[in-house]
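Retro notes (design track)

What went well: tokenization of the new backbones is finally stable.
What didn't: we kept losing track of which sequence belonged to which structure.
Fix going forward: every design gets posted as structure first, then sequence, in one message. First example under the new rule, 70 residues:
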């Protein structure tokens, strides 16, 4: 995996996460949980966006990453 890129948009209330190269997006699909999956031409998920994500202005975002075998 390349670099993980995380963007928080306070104005739009979205949290976007890219698993590497974000310009490879070809299509997207919204789930029932207000999450948009961004996919490349092969249908592989290369990122996601959480809609209606809200964090306080003073809150620091922290993330824990784990790897899983597929």
């Amino acid at each position: 995996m390349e670099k993980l890129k995380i963007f928080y948009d306070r104005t739009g209330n979205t949290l976007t996460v890219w698993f590497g190269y974000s310009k490879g997006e070809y299509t997207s699909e919204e789930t029932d949980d207000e999450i948009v999956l961004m996919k490349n031409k092969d249908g592989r998920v290369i990122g996601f966006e959480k809609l209606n994500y809200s964090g306080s202005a003073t809150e620091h975002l922290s993330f824990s990453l784990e790897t899983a075998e597929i």
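Added context from the reviewer: The longest strand covers residues 4-9.
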